[in-house]
Amino acid sequence: MFERFTKAARAVVKGAAEHAERGGATSVTQEHLLLALLDGEGTRATEALRALCPPDRRPSLVATLTDARRRAGLSRADEEALADLGIDVGAIVARVEETHGEGALAGDREDSGRRSGRRPFSREAKGILEKSLRVALARKDREIGDEHILLALTTTGGVVAEALADHGVTYASVEAAVAGVPAP
To answer: How confident is the model at residue 108, as a pLDDT?
Structure first.
């Protein structure tokens, strides 16, 4: 499948792995794919992101992801479902962090004694890459570009798609923005 990835899409995959390593994550996640997309320049996806979520709004997007990580990756829908059962996620996070320190529920972090090396892609991140292929095929595109990765991220549900939607980045808005950006 990777032979069908454009240079820009390969850069996203590589950048995601670098984000995971810098952050001490044990695996590459959907969030790392998004962070790598936000780092890019001059591609169809990065131009679409710039139009939909300008640089001055990106700190808010990253803060949303960070907050979700503190809640062990629970989306608002997850949190609301638990609230319906009488479970206050905010109170649980506060108690855990009071005992174990801020970010204790973030999970997926290396022990300080572990050696660094290549990070495997999480099941969800692999799913995004597979979905990017399906998006490209559905759009009758010959190659998988970084725009297909961004489109796939908007369709999966969960924290990343929720954070993107909260910042105006949906499948429809990305599709429209990408249509106005010429291929590199």
So the answer is: 52
